[in-house]
Amino acid sequence: MNARAAILEAWRRHLADGRRRSPHTVRAYGAAAARLLERTGAADWGTVAALGAAGLRAQLAARRAEGLGNASAARELSALKAFITFAQSQAGEEGSTPPRLRGPRLKKGLPRPVTPDEALGLAEEVADEAREPWIGARDRAVLMLLYGAGLRIAEALSLKGADNPLGERLTVTGKGGKQRVAPMLPIVREAVAAYAADCPYPLAPEAPLFRGAKGGALSQGVVQKAVARARLSLGLPATATPHALRHSFATHLLGAGADLRSLQELLGHASLGSTQIYTKVDAAVLLDSYRSAHPRA
């Protein structure tokens, strides 16, 4: 194994084992690091650690020339900053800070759901920016419950230790005490299981599943602040909030062919009227795509 391959292997191992990142993130972050090493010719930790803002700017310029969009460019910048931070620790420069470089700004427009890539990227970015690995795993698990299962943030934070491990279905108590059954995708169950394995506090059956840094129940404000920091790093608009992930869950299901009655049940809406808003959101997204792509629009 040559020096560059050894660097990439160590980076991927750190992401997968040390930071417990998803396979999707390990692949994406590993690919970003590989492209940086290829362009710069760096083959040791010290050279990577010494890369400055100019080096990252040149890397992003090269990627943008290949057609990389704003959101993807912001995500790549975040990956490279994390890679350089890891390189600094490997080079014995613990405590150094990565280059300060802001990601591209996205155009402001009407509030809209985030894309699937942006939703997953937001969850991964929140995890990457956390001060401790278990806190990152916790915040990622909460966001995956919002986007992957359509839970309200209050519903996710009301889960108890007895709910872990999650099964393929979860009975959720929503507004007005209304109960519904929410399907749990494997990626959601895995995210919650990873958090539970890392959590330093005992998860007693009647205690809150999601804990704050000091062991108490996790508050909505902590999650909202973490998402606010992450969306700035990714260049996402202010509408990319935790609640927007639930809206995105609904919009993407509707776009994939889900009927309104099924969506009403999944979201826990008391009336169909509350669910019908998503037909307008979906139509707005389609119209925007048409205007952006059609040569006669």
What does this structure look like?
It is built from 14 helices and 2 strands. It is mainly α. It has 2 domains: 3-90; 116-290, Intergrase catalytic core (hpI Integrase, Chain A), CATH 1.10.443. It has a two-stranded antiparallel ribbon. Helix 7 (133-149) runs antiparallel to helix 9 and helix 7 (133-149) runs parallel beside helix 11 (242-255). 39% of the residues are buried. The model is unreliable at 277-281, 283-287 and 293-297 (pLDDT under 50).
What percentage of residues falls in helices of 4 or more residues?
Answer: 55-70%
- Give, in order, the helices and strands: HHHHHHHHEEHHHHHH
Query: Which shape, going by the Cα principal axes?
Result: globular
Rg calc: 20 Å
CATH architecture designation of the largest domain: Orthogonal Bundle
Q: Report low-confidence residues grouped into runs of 5 or more.
A: 277-281, 283-287, 293-297
What would the keywords be for this entry?
297 residues, globular, mainly alpha, hpI Integrase, Chain A, single chain, 14 helices
Quick description:
The protein has 297 residues and is mainly α.
